[in-house]
Design brief:
The complex is a heterodimer of chains A (640) and B (340). Chain A is an alpha/beta fold and 640 residues long. Chain A is built from 22 helices and 18 strands. In chain A, the strands form 5 sheets. A 6-stranded mixed β-sheet of chain A has the order 15-14-13-16-17-18, sandwiched between helices. In chain A, strands 2-5-8-1-9 form a 5-stranded parallel β-sheet. In chain A, α19 runs parallel beside α20. Chain A is flat and about 80 Å long. The longest helix of chain B has 26 residues. Chain B has 2 domains: 159 residues, Rossmann fold (3-Layer(aba) Sandwich); 85 residues, Magnesium chelatase subunit I, C-Terminal domain (Helicase, Ruva Protein, domain 3, Orthogonal Bundle). In chain B, 48% of the residues are buried. Chain B is globular. In chain B, strands 4-7-10-1-11 form a 5-stranded parallel β-sheet, with helices on both faces. A two-stranded antiparallel ribbon of chain B has the order 2-3. With 340 residues, chain B is of the alpha/beta class. The chains are: A alpha/beta (640), B alpha/beta (340).
Chain lengths: 640, 340
């Protein structure tokens, strides 16, 4: 059993030993989830698809009793299929409502597998959360209002890279997580087995008791690790109970608690516990040094957010998430005497479950909070057949997700009734059916509001900082107020030194943009080309999500770092102009604000290459800028 | 499906107060609960339903109409409209959960599909708004709801009437309900125009103190293990809370609000610069409801202070980039007004 408690051990174990330890832990998680899928909420598998992931899924399925339902829920599942809906063909044939059960209620008592969970639309996420919370599915659709029992666990397959991750609301409800990249595909051990029948374990689980001090220890650990959600502590205790039941105990023992803390609380930690607040500062730099071998899937796209210049580089080598010798907290042995022994053990165990490179990971999680990319973002000024304001009906084949416009369909069918032999009713008591054929189908159309994503690329270099960074910040702040009113998404890129950072991926949370902006420090050289490139990548990304991107570039145009990092010569300027032309090629509307003290032809040339509007900051007030952006959003032609 | 009892909810006093206030005086106009995940928002709302006393309703009426009200007040489909004999039922106050993913036709009501397809008749099939009449409509993640649905819900909540003009159906029916919305602002902000259409608003956070957190976990586990025993254990306190609510509801109409309290409320609103009179009205009504919940014979300044943040924090003219939370601004204004 791998339920050891982390004890400082200065000698790293050989790789093979660490691998087997990691695999032992995964096997244990598979057993835990098989015992109590609905109680634990589910298992999150983060990483690329591959043999490792397939193996773990197979393990979980293999442990479950044969009769257990395990269904895959595709990422773009329609509400009809997820929750249930009218089986249209048979409804029309029989003339009465025929209900088709959805995937979720089918999984009652079993597991639902969610591939590509990072792309789940928020409507699906909220349905899943409601079902996990309540164990029943509340239906209010298409003439049916009902409550259906629906207790299930989720196997969430998160393939996100970098910032992309499964929606936080869903993550919050899952007890267990496995980082697939930390596992070595070459050393997959034999499948775990369950000697005792699961039913017996489940029966024992009912009678497992938890002491008050155990609950206190878990809550203290959650607090010390900066986990705000109450669910984490609940799930950790539940995991401890399941582990006790698996081990044949009816009372939760120390090792059960340690395991619950390590598996559940560890990966959720948002801060490194320090014995005293004074040590907090000291602990963090150490931990960041310690992050030499990250096991988080590192951002490797250029737009990825690495706010720290010294953030760890991607490391291909598999590392061990549960490495017991990882000493994240240098002051480990200086625990205050006030904490009880049990609390210490639980906290130490939770820390051993903390992912490597915590600080880097923390920045990623913090940055992507609320900005979870979703497949369901409203499209840019397009007509949709799924949601939005009703905008008439049109003839079309019924596909998944489209909605039948009943009256229009009946209306279309009406003239043909006599020809089809159904006949128009001849009197009030004539109950002959109306024949509706495929060509009569009319589906509803909806107008969706277009969503704009304003990407601010701010030159934070020394030359700009000295002169006008504060002013540029002021202008951005004013624009943000405007964006807030129009509910735009806003992203922030800063370029200085040798690279451009996505300080904030597209978000609607203006308070966060403002905070990041205030923290933005100026200084260093001007990698202008990199800044333009980063804006372009982000613009393309937001377009893929169905938004309408706009780029607002704030620079003095004095680029002095080329794309490959070289300084001096003509390369920086040439690269910047070339990047501008590429941005023009994408057709993304853009605006260049000249932040140099006097309007210079340099920035004007840049704007011309970009086919962007040009405004010199000294001559335009921020109201003027926001008017320009509005016009840009409405598709106006650049004025120069 | 057993529901976690209201009185067993640990801490979260402001949330519990707000819910009780709107239950006492539905004209307050809804509660908006914003806050972190896992703080007991949904639990509290669902628990409220079980605590409310049952009410008289006309059997067979899709809108749960009050048999004591004027018969003209109900709509088509109500037995009283047809002029037949009516039977009175005691029914629990409806708390309707608006699931995300609900289709618009199920919310407002629509053409009865079965009748349309099989008999070609136009029959109105009432939606969730009809079911929520005289009760509560709860929307979790209100900030994720499509804008057009939120507009519609707030409009109906404000007018107390649902007007359906769709698919050849034309009907209006009573839909008086208290709207309760919850959500996490980090996932998307509610349109600012919609904020002040909720009567009360509060921000909810996870308890930080370890003993409170421990108690939360313990009670939840006890409930999960044996719901029946847990409910029995809290039955007495639930009954007492219900009685308090019933009394408060009766008393609230007659409860006096002295002029000096009204003046204080006006001064407070003026110093905060809230737009219009809605803020003042809600503030005074909320104070009155708080007084009747307390069992006081008169509304006083203490009640005003108690509900000021609830009633006003979302009505302040908001600089979206303002660092200072609106709660802090209300508290400051309270200090100033009451120091004077």
């Amino acid at each position: 059993m791998s339920a050891y408690i982390a004890i400082a051990d200065v000698h790293p174990a050989p790789a093979s030993v660490r691998d087997s330890v990691a695999w032992d832990e995964v096997a244990l998680m598979a057993r835990l989830i098989a015992v109590d899928p609905s109680g634990l909420g589910g298992l999150l598998l983060r990483g690329r698809a591959g043999p490792v992931r397939d193996q773990i899924c197979a393990w979980v399925q293999g442990l479950l009793p044969a009769a257990t339902v395990v269904r895959r829920i595709p990422v773009h599942v329609s509400d009809d299929r997820l929750l249930g809906g009218i089986a249209l063909a048979s409804t029309l044939r029989s003339g009465r409502i025929v209900w088709e059960q959805g995937l979720l209620p089918t999984c009652h008592g079993g597991l639902a597998v969610l591939p590509m969970a990072e792309r789940l639309e928020s409507r699906v996420v909220s349905q899943l959360c409601a079902v996990l919370d309540r164990g029943v599915l509340t239906l209010a659709r298409e003439g049916v209002t009902a409550e259906v029992p629906c207790r299930l666990g989720l196997l969430v397959l998160d393939e996100g890279i970098g910032d992309e991750q499964v929606h936080v609301a869903l993550r919050d409800r899952l007890a267990l997580q496995v980082d697939l990249d930390a596992l070595d595909a070459r050393s997959i051990p034999a499948a775990p087995t369950q000697q005792e029948p699961l039913d017996d374990v489940r029966a024992r689980l009912q009678s497992v008791t938890v002491g008050a001090d155990a609950v206190t220890a878990m809550c203290s650990a959650a607090e010390a690790l900066g986990i705000p959600s109450m669910r984490a502590a609940l799930l950790a205790v539940r995991t401890a109970c399941v582990h006790a039941a698996l081990g044949g105990r009816t009372e939760v023992a120390e090792i059960d608690l340690a395991l619950g803390a390590r598996l559940v609380l560890g990966p959720l930690a948002t801060r490194i516990p320090a014995p005293t607040p004074a040590d907090d500062d000291a602990a963090q730099p150490d931990a960041s040094d310690d992050a030499g071998e990250p096991n988080e899937p590192e951002p490797n796209e250029p737009e990825s957010n690495t706010p720290q210049p010294d953030a760890p580089e991607p490391d291909a080598g598999p590392t061990d998430a549960t490495n017991p010798d990882r000493d994240l907290q240098p002051c480990d042995d200086e625990q205050p005497p006030s904490t009880s022994g049990l609390e210490e053990i639980v906290l130490a165990a939770a820390k051993s479950g903390m992912p490597d490179g915590l600080l880097g990971a923390l920045n990623v999680t913090a940055a992507s909070r609320g900005a979870t990319p979703s497949a369901g973002q409203a499209g840019a000024s397009r007509t949709s057949t799924r949601g939005g304001r009703p905008a008439g009906a049109r003839a079309a084949a019924l596909e998944d997700g489209t909605r039948l416009a009943i009256l229009d369909t009946l209306r279309a069918a009406a003239p043909w009734q006599r020809l089809r032999g159904g006949g128009v009713s001849s009197g009030p008591n004539d109950m002959r059916r109306i024949q509706v054929r495929r060509e009569d189908f009319r589906i509803k159309q909806f107008q969706q509001r277009s969503e704009t994503c304003v990407i601010f690329a701010v030159d934070a270099s020394g030359s700009a900082a000295l002169e006008r960074l504060a002013e540029a910040k002021g202008a951005v702040e004013h624009l943000l107020t405007d964006c807030y009113v129009r509910r735009d998404h806003v992203a922030l890129i800063a370029f200085r030194g040798t690279a451009a950072d996505v300080v904030l991926p597209p978000t609607r949370s203006l308070a966060r943009v403002r905070r990041r902006l205030a923290d933005l420090a100026g200084g260093g050289t001007t990698p202008l080309a990199a800044g333009i490139d980063a804006a372009m990548v982000l613009a393309n990304e937001s377009r893929r999500r169905g938004q309408t991107p706009l780029v607002v570039m704030m620079t003095d145009g004095r680029g002095n770092v080329a794309r490959d990092g070289r300084t001096g010569g003509a390369a920086p300027n040439d690269d910047a102009l070339e990047s501008s032309r590429r941005l023009r090629g994408t057709g993304v509307p853009s605006l260049v604000l000249d932040t140099s003290p006097r309007a210079t032809p340099r920035v004007r040339l840049l704007a011309a290459e970009m086919n962007a509007r040009y405004l010199a900051l000294p001559y335009c007030n921020s109201a003027g800028v926001s008017r320009e952006i509005r016009q840009l959003a409405q598709g106006g032609k650049p004025c120069r | 499906m057993p529901v976690f009892p209201f009185t067993a909810i640990v801490a979260q006093d402001e949330l519990k107060l707000a819910l009780q206030l709107v239950a006492i005086d539905p004209s307050l106009g809804g509660v908006l609960v914003l806050g972190d995940r896992g703080t007991g928002k949904s639990t509290a709302v669902r628990a409220l339903a079980t605590m409310l006393p049952s009410m008289n309703a006309t059997r067979g009426c899709p809108y749960n109409c009050d048999p004591g009200s004027a018969p003209g007040g109900c709509a088509d489909g109500c037995p009283r409209q047809a002029g037949g004999d009516t039977v009175v039922d005691r029914v629990p106050v409806p708390v309707v959960d608006l699931p995300l993913g609900a289709t618009e036709d199920r919310v407002v009501g629509a053409l009865d599909l079965e009748a349309a397809l099989s008999r070609g008749e136009r029959v109105f099939s009432p939606g969730l708004l009809a079911r929520a009449n005289r009760g509560f409509l709860y929307i979790d993640e209100v900030n994720l709801l499509p804008d057009h649905l939120v507009d519609l819900l707030l409009d109906v909540a404000a007018s107390g009437e649902n007007v359906v003009e769709r698919e050849g159906v034309s009907i209006r029916h009573p839909a008086r309900f208290v709207l309760i919305g919850s959500g996490n602002p980090e996932e998307g902000e509610l349109r600012p125009q919609l904020l002040d259409r909720f009567g009360l608003a509060l921000e909810i956070t996870t308890p930080k103190e370890i003993p409170v957190r421990v108690e939360v976990v313990k009670r939840r586990m006890a409930f999960d293990r044996d719901p029946a025993a847990f409910l029995a254990e809290h039955a007495a306190s639930e009954a007492a809370a219900t009685r308090r609510l019933v009394d408060a509801r009766v008393r609230v109409r007659e409860l006096a609000v002295p002029d000096r309290v009204i003046e204080r409320a006006a001064t407070l609103c003026a110093s905060l610069g809230t737009d219009g009179l809605r803020g003042e009205l809600t503030l005074i009504r909320a104070a009155r409801a708080a007084a009747s919940l307390d069992g006081s014979s008169e509304t006083n300044e203490r009640h005003l202070v108690k509900v000021a943040a609830l009633a006003l924090r979302h009505r302040l003219r908001r600089e979206p980039l303002d660092e200072v939370g609106s709660t802090v601004r209300v508290d400051k204004a309270l200090e100033e007004v009451f120091a004077a």
